[in-house]
Each structure stands twice: as structure tokens, then as C-alpha cells.
Write a structure and sequence with these properties.
Blueprint: E1 6-7, H1 24-30, E2 43-47, E3 51-57, E4 66-71, E5 74-88, E6 93-107, E7 117-121, E8 124-130, E9 155-156, E10 159-160
Antiparallel strand pairs: 1-6, 2-3, 3-8, 4-5, 5-6, 7-8, 9-10
Length: 161
């Protein structure tokens, strides 16, 4: 079975080798770098019969500021965010800015990389990740032996062999 697994960079927190906290599953609970906020964005991964569908929430990000790349069986989704919101009322001014770089990486084990497609609509980036088709199990078969077939009996010292 193959899965789409987010890749995490090791933080500078040291845990004893071979500990429970070094396991990729548990490490994700303690490494919040890719959660919502400045360094990351939310994603949903849904399994379908022939593919996985990854949906990344990137509201307010322009399509030209989103990048998808595949390198060494890793999908990287990155975005540059530069947004500003201002509201003016009678006695106050409200101003909020967001800027920076967001990035998430996913292992592509079991994914047919040349078939990956993406679409961006209403702040949601949808990436279709087709599964590698399993090869059918090979069954036993007979192998013919090639060679010359003698049409006449071979004679050795005047005797039939």
C-alpha cells in the first residue's frame, strides 16, 4: 500500500535515537512547522480508486505565486504570500499584512509522476496524483528450448544411436 506522506524537516529538538518521538508518525504531532500559520498551509488528501487528490488551502494567493515541483520522488508545493487588508472607520484604522514564503513537501511513493495535474480555483489548489498501476502477478509458464532437431538417427561406428 502506498501513501502520500508529508515530509518534515528535523527540528533542532534532540530526542534519543530510536525513541518513540523519532518515529515519523509521532514526530508530526510535535513538529508544528507545517501547520496553519506563516510557515505552512492546510492540506487534505483523499484517496480515490485510481489516484489521490490533494487539496491545499491557499486563500488570497495569486496563481502566479504558487509553484509545484517534483524532485527525487518528492512533490513540493510553495507559495509567496503578499497581502494587505485595510479598513477605515470613524475613529480608527485597521490594517493587517501577511507576507512570506509557505512550503509543504510530500513523498510520491507509488505515484505515477508524469501523470500529475493541478488546478487552482477559489483559493484551493487541487493536485491529482495518479497511482502507479500494479503489475499483474506473473504465473508459471513453459519455456521452449530452441535448437536443431535431428531428422535422421545419428550413426556411431556403424551403429544406430
Amino acid at each position: 500500500m502506498y501513501t502520500i506522506v508529508p515530509l518534515h524537516r528535523h527540528s533542532n529538538v534532540s530526542y534519543p535515537m530510536n525513541s518513540l518521538f523519532d518515529d515519523r508518525f509521532f514526530r508530526s504531532f510535535f513538529d508544528m512547522n507545517d501547520m496553519v500559520g506563516a510557515p505552512g498551509f492546510r492540506v487534505d488528501v483523499k484517496e480515490e480508486p485510481e489516484s489521490y487528490r490533494l487539496e491545499a488551502e491557499l486563500p488570497g494567493v495569486k496563481q502566479e505565486n504558487i509553484s509545484l515541483s517534483v524532485d527525487h520522488d518528492v512533490l513540493t508545493i510553495s507559495a509567496e504570500v503578499n497581502a494587505q487588508k485595510q479598513e477605515k472607520h470613524e475613529n480608527y484604522l485597521y490594517s493587517e499584512r501577511r507576507s512570506g514564503h509557505m512550503e509543504r513537501r510530500f513523498s510520491l511513493e507509488g505515484i505515477y509522476e508524469d501523470g500529475i495535474t493541478a488546478e487552482y480555483k477559489d483559493g484551493i489548489l487541487t493536485v491529482n496524483l495518479p497511482k502507479v498501476k500494479p503489475e499483474p502477478e506473473k504465473s508459471a509458464r513453459h519455456i521452449a528450448i530452441n535448437g536443431s532437431v535431428a531428422s535422421e538417427p545419428i550413426h556411431i561406428d556403424g551403429q544406430n544411436a
